[in-house]
Amino acid sequence: MSPLLHRLWMESEDFLRYNPVVRNTLARYKVARAIRQSPNLIGARIRQLDELCSAARIASDEPLLRKIERHIEQRIGQISVGDIPWETLLPDPTSRRLTKGIILKPYISTREKGILYVSFENQMGRMALSENLERLSERYTLVLAPSWCPPHSIYTYLFPQLYPDNIVCCISNTKDLTLFPRINSKYRMVPLYASNWVDAKEFAPIPHAEKTIDIFMLANFAKYKRHHAFFRALRDVPGHFRIVLNGQSEPGRSRDTLLREATAYGVQDRFELQENVSDEQLHHNLTHSKVSVILSMREGSCVAVVESIMANTPVAMLHDAEIGSKEFVTPQSGRLLRHENLGRQLTEFVATSHTYEPRAWAEAEGIGCFESSITLNAALREYAHAQGQLWTQDIVPMRWRPNPQYYDPNDASRMADAHADIASYGLAVWTKTA
User: Fold this and answer.
1) Which of 176, 310, 314, 337 has the most crowded Cβ, counting Cβ within 10 A?
2) Is residue 434 included in any domain, yes or no?
3) Which residues contact 367 (CB under 8 A, 6 or more apart)?
4) Under a CB-based contact definition with an 8 Å cutoff, are residues 148 and 302 in contact?
5) Which of 315, 401, 407 is closest to 361 using CA atoms?
6) What are the angstrom distances between the C-alpha of 382 and each of 189, 231, 371, 379?
7) Residue 412 domain boundaries
8) In what order do the strands lie in the sheet with 334-337?
9) Contact partners, residue 257, CB within 8 Å, separation at least 6
């Protein structure tokens, strides 16, 4: 394929992916395909539900989304909770390990529950395989951290049908505050993002004059990160700029994929592509960059935004991006970009980067893992009291790198009995301490 055709292909595909007319048309097609079926077997009904959830995630029109949600509710009513084949809904059906979970508080008594924090919706599918989910829910309050918005999925819909108690739920986007309660009334919302758990002490900011990278992009190699838009913009930035891209391969997209896309724009020699770098190298790159950029249009919270802010590196995002962490991009912490003349905007951003103070802004606003632990603790204490429960012991602080971890590594040993307790219900909580 010639460079011109390759560019046209990528840009046309991107346009179709995010164009609201195309999205709504595809969503309607998925709905029509799903509802014309009358499945009798449980597996077929779940596939139908999955198709409707996919349509909900694509839809950009609120009335259409509401209509799809009504179809989903009708299908939920046709599924018996006891018949759900949870093993078939998981990539590793034999595992009972919550790889993205952490115990924040041990079980205290019948009047005071422990706290189990689980991120990513598919982990609820694994919890459904517990040998005694009712007993687990009696002893622990479940806190869910979603990974994507919109949150419509077979997990977010089916698990509350099985789970005996309410679910305290964080957000990926402010839309979640209304979307989750529409999915199920058991969700109790707390406005904290995955990006609220960045540990500021991991980053040691340096003076602007010592920064050696002009533009930095932290993004896995998935298509939704829109690397092609980055490469197109690089054609219009000064040739002397040092540009670094960090990331890792995703299914179907490797280092070679990105280099082919860059070649289509003639910028394959304009940046350094570093794959699977260590945390130390990543943090070095963030602190030594004048600006960072995220060009996704839709995803979940996007932790990289706050990581950049904590490194005292102002971050740029697109003004119409549907990403929760856009809330953290302010005149002090970064810049919202238009799609037109993106290279020129990035050049101007680099030129003025010394005027931003993102780390100071974050500290003043209380954005960080320790402060967010205090916020979550207050919300859980209030929830416990509303349920007639006691609250004599606070949760331990946590952080995110790139899964939930204890802020104080010593807390892991303090939770040994709680780990054994949860293991007695056929589950294991994997927690990295450092």
Assistant:
1) 314
2) no
3) 196, 198, 306, 309, 328
4) no
5) 315
6) 12, 48, 17, 5
7) 86-196+368-429
8) 272-275, 243-247, 213-218, 289-293, 315-318, 334-337
9) 221
